[in-house]
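User: I'll paste a sequence; please echo it back and then give the predicted structure.

Assistant: Echoing your sequence first, then the prediction.
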Amino acid sequence: MILDAARERGVAMEEREARALWRELWDAGKTPEEVASGRDLSPQQHRASWLRLFGRADSRVPGLSTRLYGLMDPFRWAVYEDTRPTLEALRSRRLRIGLVSNHAYDLREVFAVRGLGPFIDTYVLSFEKGVAKPSPRLFELASQDIGVAPGRTLMVGDHPEADGAAATAAGMQTYILPPWSGNGPRGLGRVIEIVDRSRAI
């Protein structure tokens, strides 16, 4: 998308620069300060925060920020290839599954259109609860909603602080996914191993 926008604006840019620019912006959006900024408590805050951050690139490619914000549409998200098999395996073990997310938009329909809705027992979304990760409170609310004590709950996430540290503070077991290359399984198969091992103890 960055390269397309650059070409449309007549801006010379190579793929390497476009990738580096996106990585810089995305990494900036994952800092503790940005995660804890309250951007996921309403659609208005979400849009304003991300446009401010993406606006750093407008000096390089005018108008790029609004194009990049389009990537935040959850209906554009790709499903990891090991998502469904993992959810199916967990469901076959009669486990309750909750989705805890920092997001300013309802994700229920997103999961429904991908055929994943039946696997999710509860959605704990920051904009609905009025609290966002890295506050442990969001995970405490998830434990209440799903009806499972924190100590018997496994949190699976990709952010060491917002997911891992916060869930640990709420008393949950945690599994942080390994870095992803952008292709192939996301590492979710490990979840089944952790679950089966804990149930065998």
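Strands lie at 98-101, 122-125, 154-157, 173-176. The first helix runs from residue 2 to 8.
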